[in-house]
């Protein structure tokens, strides 16, 4: 009985974590999200539709140009999450943004983000995700070529990938790799959350199975 109680407890805890993570639509309220300022809401944008260049953005660093932030439906394009998002093909062409995450070595993590192409240009956009140490070279994902959903319209597409942390500090980089023409490469609603190890998932499944078997036995004995 003691072993059964341990399995039941493990199953309930894992189920609760999975449910909370899956049900969260916004990165700002997602349980366990390691990304700071994940939808670029801080500092608060100016009132009204706004297009601004920022030299600093809390939680993030960048290369290749300034932070180019759109907010409050600038150019008729609303953000995927909150009221602000970034464009990574900015005043100086393709740019990169990054931050360091507090990870656990050997732990699996899921990366989710939304991307879109700027509707004022007929070319495409692409974004690449890299993880690693101080100068990460491990590319874990590149989006397909992003184009407009319909002529003159934007279209957010959500992508998901994963990685295994090699240390307790992981640098994650999002960089524009499409045509460098200052049009496109929008990004928003970024999350990085840990996922259960395969062995943990197996333990949870075994625990749920034993719960079902024990319940059937009680009904039979009753």
Question: How are the secondary structure elements laid out?
Answer:
Elements: H1 2-23, E1 50-54, E2 61-63, E3 67-71, E4 84-87, E5 89-90, E6 93-94, E7 96-102, E8 108-116, E9 127-132, E10 138-142, E11 157-164, E12 169-176, E13 186-194, H2 198-221
Antiparallel strand pairs: 1-3, 2-7, 3-4, 4-13, 5-6, 7-12, 8-11, 8-13, 9-10, 9-12
Helix pairs in contact: 1-2
Question: What does this protein structure show overall?
Answer:
By secondary structure, this protein is of the alpha+beta class. 21% of the residues lie in helices and 33% in strands. It contains two helices and 13 strands. The chain has helices at residues 2-23, 198-221; strands spanning 50-54, 61-63, 67-71, 84-87, 89-90, 93-94, 96-102, 108-116, 127-132, 138-142, 157-164, 169-176, 186-194. The strands form three sheets. It has a six-stranded antiparallel beta sheet with strand order 1-3-4-13-8-11, with no helix packed on it. A hairpin with a 5-residue loop joins strand 9 (127-132) and strand 10 (138-142). Helix 1 (2-23) packs across helix 2. The model is unreliable at 1-24 and 200-204 (pLDDT under 50).
């Amino acid at each position: 009985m003691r072993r059964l109680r341990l399995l039941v407890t493990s199953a309930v805890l894992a189920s609760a974590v999975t449910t909370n993570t899956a049900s969260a639509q916004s990165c700002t309220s997602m349980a366990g999200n390691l990304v700071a300022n994940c939808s670029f809401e801080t500092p608060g944008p100016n009132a009204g539709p706004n297009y601004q260049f920022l030299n600093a953005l809390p939680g993030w660093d960048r290369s290749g140009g300034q932070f180019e932030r759109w907010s409050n439906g600038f150019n008729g394009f609303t953000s995927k999450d909150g009221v602000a998002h970034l464009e990574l093909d900015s005043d100086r062409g393709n740019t990169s943004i990054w931050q360091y995450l507090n990870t656990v070595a050997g732990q699996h993590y899921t990366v989710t983000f939304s991307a879109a192409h700027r509707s004022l240009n007929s070319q495409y956009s692409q974004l690449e995700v890299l993880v690693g140490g101080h100068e990460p070279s491990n590319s874990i994902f590149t989006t397909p070529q992003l184009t407009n959903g319909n002529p003159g319209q934007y279209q957010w597409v959500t992508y998901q990938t994963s990685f295994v942390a090699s240390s307790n500090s992981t640098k994650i980089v999002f960089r524009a790799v499409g045509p460098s023409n200052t049009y496109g490469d929008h990004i928003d609603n970024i999350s990085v959350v840990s996922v259960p190890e395969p062995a943990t998932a197996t333990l949870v499944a075994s625990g749920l199975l034993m719960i079902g078997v024990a319940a059937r036995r009680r009904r039979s004995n009753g």
